[in-house]
Write a structure and sequence with these properties.
binds adenosine-5'-diphosphate, 37% helix, 6-stranded parallel β-sheet, 2 domains, alpha/beta, 475 residues, Rossmann fold
Length: 475
């Protein structure tokens, strides 16, 4: 089957978070399973894109209302990623390093979607399935069905995969003219809460909806930033598929970013050496348990609780624990985390920014990974942590609930119910006690490392989903 994935991120070409990891891995495994898979994303100014070679396979102008932007479709030359990577180059809109956060994000991503469909529409054969990811590609199912110029794509089935329902790509009807001419009787499909809502449009129009974990699919029926009733309505065409992890990229036995490679057979020594290097580089004490956090410093991740929870835990366990934070996001949280450095030097550090190599080193060198998330549609960090023998401490929500069971119930991690300073500190205290029981902690680490979160079986679930909608279309 020929599958197109269309997204705003794809590792290693452009990454902000988990969306990139999924769009960089799932296509690779679908391709190995015998399908012909392509990924389409905008051409940003990223290191990977600048350092690799692409061929221009199509050029045209994309029309956004009364603007015309020249665009090119670039194809990665070697195919080394395990799927065909296409970049939509619209220099005026995407010639920037930052993927999101621009004033003209709506213009950028609407143009990206139109240019992508303009190009696909020129092909002689249409793909069997188009899998869109998150709101940046949410208008595609609508335009394929109802925009006059995409008549050829009308019957191609589409899937919207929801990685996060917080971000919905809303904009006013004053920008309706950005869209190519379409059947006006369908205009209400674009609307949610009196605005054009890209994610809601995709949920209404796509042939199928998937979420990145089964538990998240349950949660969004009662908590989805205003889209709850819509999710209830489309339950019949929805399924929750737990993300896998790329076992090649995330493998402590071969990971080139680590100080020392290790496997389940020699993880005690391997982790210790990585911990020593990490602690030396960040002025921490390698003889004490190391708690880390990696991620976007936002309320949805519970990051606003970290400064207070870190200060309390470090004070209560004076010099008995280390805490290391890597992330960026909300400036106030960043400042509070940086400010703590003055009080807890030697046992605490915070790196504000994005650093892929350091993230790998933290998964390898830490004892525990904190994830007090308020919202976590799937969460990949806990799976990476376990693969690297680090015990996740999670709030029971979304995909964290699907993947982490408390060690008190014979599980693989530490769980708490509330996103609160008290619950985080209580869990840290339990971890400090667990750390003293070497046999028990090593058994839990081993259990985590042995879990198979690979994409092979997950990829099959996506294919089953595609087959269902293909059969429906044919029947
Ligand atoms: P989300 O997509 O909501 O940010 P996920 O858990 O699904 O969360 O995925 C997060 C991904 O981003 C992981 O690969 C994690 O290692 C990575 N990541 C997040 N923040 C940073 C950072 N500051 N530096 C390096 N990697 C990061």
């Amino acid at each position: 089957m020929e599958i197109f994935h269309i997204a705003a991120e794809c590792y290693p070409a452009a990454k902000v978070g988990g969306l990139a990891d999924v769009v960089g891995a799932l296509p690779k495994y679908q391709n190995s399973a015998g399908h012909l898979v392509s990924v389409v994303l905008p051409r940003y100014e990223t290191k990977f894109i600048n350092e690799n070679e692409f061929d221009c396979v199509h050029s045209d102008f994309v029309k956004l209302g009364n603007f015309n932007f020249p665009f090119n479709i670039l194809k990665e030359r070697t195919g080394k990623l395990g799927y065909e990577l296409y970049l939509v180059e619209i220099p005026e809109l995407f010639d920037r390093k930052e993927i999101y956060g621009h004033e003209d994000d709506i213009e950028r991503f609407v143009s990206f979607q139109i240019a992508t469909l303009d190009w696909i529409n020129t092909r002689t054969a249409m793909p069997d399935v188009i899998n869109c990811h998150d709101h940046h590609t949410g208008l595609i199912p609508f335009m394929m069905m109802y925009a006059n110029k995409y008549e050829k794509l009308k019957d191609t089935p589409t899937v919207i995969t929801i990685h996060n329902s917080i971000y919905q790509g809303q904009f006013g009807f004053d920008k309706l003219y950005y869209l190519p001419e379409f059947d006006l009787s369908k205009v209400t499909l674009l609307e949610w809460d009196n605005r054009i809502n890209s994610l809601a449009t995709a949920i209404k129009c796509a042939s199928a909806v998937t979420t990145v974990s089964p538990n998240y699919l349950n949660e969004i029926n009662y908590s989805a930033y205003g889209l709850e009733s819509l999710f209830n309505l489309v339950r019949y065409k929805s399924r929750g598929i737990l993300n896998g992890i790329d076992m090649e990229v995330w493998n402590p036995a071969t990971d080139k970013m680590l100080e020392k490679n290790y496997s389940i057979k020699n993880f005690k020594k391997g982790k210790q050496e990585n911990k020593e290097k990490l602690c030396a580089e960040h002025n921490l004490d390698p003889t004490k348990p190391l708690f880390s956090f990696i991620g976007r410093l936002l309320e949805e991740k519970g990051a606003d609780l970290l400064p207070h929870a870190a200060a309390m835990s470090l004070s209560e366990n004076y010099k008995e624990i280390n805490i290391l934070v890597l992330g960026s996001g909300n400036t106030e949280i960043e400042n509070q985390l940086t400010h703590l450095l003055t009080s807890f030097k030697g046992n605490y550090n915070a790196v504000i920014g994005y650093d892929e190599a350091l993230a790998h080193q933290i998964y390898a060198g830490s004892d525990f990974l904190l994830m007090p998330s308020r919202v976590e549609p799937c969460g990949l960090n806990q799976m990476y942590a376990m693969r690297y023998g680090t015990i996740p401490i999670v709030r029971r929500t979304g995909g964290l609930k699907d993947t982490v069971i408390d060690f008190g119930d014979n599980g693989n991690g530490i769980c708490h119910d509330q996103a609160s300073v008290g619950d985080i500190c209580y869990s840290i205290q339990r971890a400090v006690n667990l750390y003293k029981d070497k046999k028990k902690i090593n058994d839990i680490r081993k259990k985590g490392m042995a879990i198979d979160h690979s994409w092979e079986s997950v990829c099959q679930e996506y294919i089953e989903g595609y087959n269902l909608i293909l059969n429906k279309n044919e029947g």
